[in-house]
């Protein structure tokens, strides 16, 4: 009102106070809108793009100075850091290797634990001490012996299947003959059709073989062989081997069936000695068993 | 020396804009938390200076829009700087004739409470919207801003000074 009467020289636009009222109320409105509904995000984003050059201007000298500083880091400092990092890396990789070994051991132990539970908790967990020193035999020495209640003829398994049986006892250790030992036999049965057979070991590093099967025997590759339990030493139903190849050569009387053990017989550190007593009829006297010697398993005393 | 006692060239609008850009850039520099506590609010100082010395160019509207930019740059709630800057710039605009008479140190004494008011308003807004108290170091910037005032005034006035007063008379 008053402004219209004034000469142009004094005209200063709206009064500061009214401007203050306008802008302050605008500020308050924005404040409330922003805090309450958070709908101003697009505005914020748009304007912050416009502000970007200023931000760049503000930060560019600092980052440039940092880069120059980085460039002049002394050689010795770099070398020192490098050496330290190398040391750290060595230490870390050693730790990592140990960790991996421990992890593997742990999984195997857990698997054995569940295997043991499957056998009604009967069995002794044992650790492999060393392979037998004789390179011609497939034998292990484990850390449980007579004092732990281990008996001759007990079956040793790992989570996948049969590993062997206890063949010699010492007070604190026991010797386990692996199923791959030459001459070691396991009476088996094909899971698919129940055909009975005998599995022979051919010595360490060699496959297992099923011998004395006629050419037309119903055994195919990938058949799973489990213990039949006929001999009274091996409890029935434990996986022993998987048929790898069947050669039916007309020139020979028998099929040649090679198998690979189901268990990792030469890998693990921990094994389970099964403790399954079964009531068996009395054993035939020695002279009666003699003719069957060839097909029978290697029976400990 | 009182500002008004000098004969000054008219200010260029582009120079005002330039000073605000510089002030905004200074505000955007990522100072560390220690330095930041001691730094004055450059935008507020520049704004108060221009409100005091060029009230016909710079007013409450400038205050508001600059405050918007700061809010966006800092990611604060909208209107936090706006309220504070509008209020203090209005206060200075109302008394710019009187303030222009004062020597610089006296102006600084006047500016200090205004800066404090700025901080207080912003603190109130933030606490009203749910933020916590940032600590007493928040107010240290007020003191350094007041100390910086004479220097800033001299600096911003420099382009307006006449080198040789004789030339004007001729």
TrEMBL record, chain A:
Residues 290-301 have a biased composition (Basic residues). The keyword RNA-binding does not apply. The keyword RNA-binding does not apply. Belongs to the MreC family. Residues 128-274 form the Rod shape-determining protein MreC beta-barrel core domain. Keywords: Cell shape. Involved in formation and maintenance of cell shape. It comes from the Bacteria. Residues 281-301 are annotated as: Disordered. Gene3D superfamilies: Rod shape-determining protein MreC, domain 1, Rod shape-determining protein MreC, domain 2. InterPro entries: Cell/Rod_1, Cell/Rod_MreC_2, MreC, MreC_beta-barrel_core. Pfam families: MreC. The lineage of its organism: Bacteria, Pseudomonadati, Pseudomonadota, Betaproteobacteria, Neisseriales. Coiled coil: none annotated. This is Cell shape-determining protein MreC.
From TrEMBL, chain B:
It is found in: Cell membrane. Belongs to the MreD family. Pfam families: MreD. The keyword Ribonucleoprotein does not apply. Keywords: Cell membrane, Cell shape, Membrane, Transmembrane, Transmembrane helix. The keyword Ribonucleoprotein does not apply. It comes from Chitinimonas prasina. This is Rod shape-determining protein.
């Amino acid at each position: 009102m008053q402004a219209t009467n004034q000469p142009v020289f004094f005209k200063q636009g709206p009064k500061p106070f009214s401007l203050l009222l306008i802008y302050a109320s605008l500020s308050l409105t924005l404040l409330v809108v922003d805090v309450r509904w958070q709908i101003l995000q697009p505005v914020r984003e748009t304007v912050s793009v416009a502000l970007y050059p200023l931000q760049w201007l503000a930060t560019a000298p600092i980052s440039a100075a940092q880069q120059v500083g980085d460039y002049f880091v002394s050689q010795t400092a770099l070398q020192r850091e490098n050496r330290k990092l190398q040391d750290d890396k060595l230490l870390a990789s050693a730790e990592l290797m140990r960790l991996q070994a421990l992890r593997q051991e742990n999984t195997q132990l857990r698997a054995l634990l569940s295997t043991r539970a499957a056998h009604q908790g009967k069995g002794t967990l044992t650790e492999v001490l060393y392979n037998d020193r004789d390179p011609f035999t497939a034998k292990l020495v484990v850390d449980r012996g007579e004092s732990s209640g281990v008996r001759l003829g007990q079956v040793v398994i790992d989570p996948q299947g049969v590993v062997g049986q206890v063949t010699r006892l010492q007070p604190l250790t026991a010797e386990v003959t692996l199923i791959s030992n030459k001459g070691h036999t396991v009476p088996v049965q094909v899971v698919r059709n129940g055909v009975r057979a005998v599995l022979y070991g051919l010595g360490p590093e060699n496959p297992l073989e099923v011998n004395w099967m006629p050419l037309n025997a119903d055994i195919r590759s990938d058949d799973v062989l489990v213990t039949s339990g006929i001999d009274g030493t091996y409890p029935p139903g434990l996986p022993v081997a998987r048929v790898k190849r069947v050669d039916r050569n007309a020139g020979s009387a028998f099929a040649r069936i090679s198998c690979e053990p189901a268990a990792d017989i030469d890998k693990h550190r921990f094994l389970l000695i099964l403790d399954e007593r079964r009531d068996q009829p009395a054993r035939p006297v020695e002279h009666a068993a003699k003719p069957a010697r060839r097909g029978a398993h290697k029976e400990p005393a | 020396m009182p500002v008004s006692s000098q004969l000054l060239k008219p200010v260029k609008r582009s120079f005002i804009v330039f000073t605000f850009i510089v002030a905004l850039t200074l505000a955007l520099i990522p100072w560390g938390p220690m330095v930041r506590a001691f730094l004055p609010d450059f935008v507020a100082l520049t704004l108060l200076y221009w409100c005091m010395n060029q009230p016909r160019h710079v007013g409450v509207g400038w205050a508001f829009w600059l405050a918007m930019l700061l809010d966006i740059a800092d990611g604060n709630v909208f209107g936090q700087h706006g309220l504070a800057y509008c209020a203090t710039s209005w206060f200075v605009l109302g008394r710019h004739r009187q303030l222009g008479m004062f020597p610089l140190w006296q102006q600084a004494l006047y500016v200090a409470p205004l800066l404090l008011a700025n901080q207080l308003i912003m603190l109130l807004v933030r606490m009203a919207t749910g933020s916590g108290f940032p600590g007493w170091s928040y107010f240290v910037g007020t003191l350094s801003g007041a100390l910086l005032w004479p220097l800033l005034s001299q600096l911003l006035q420099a382009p307006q000074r006449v080198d040789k007063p004789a030339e004007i008379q001729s």
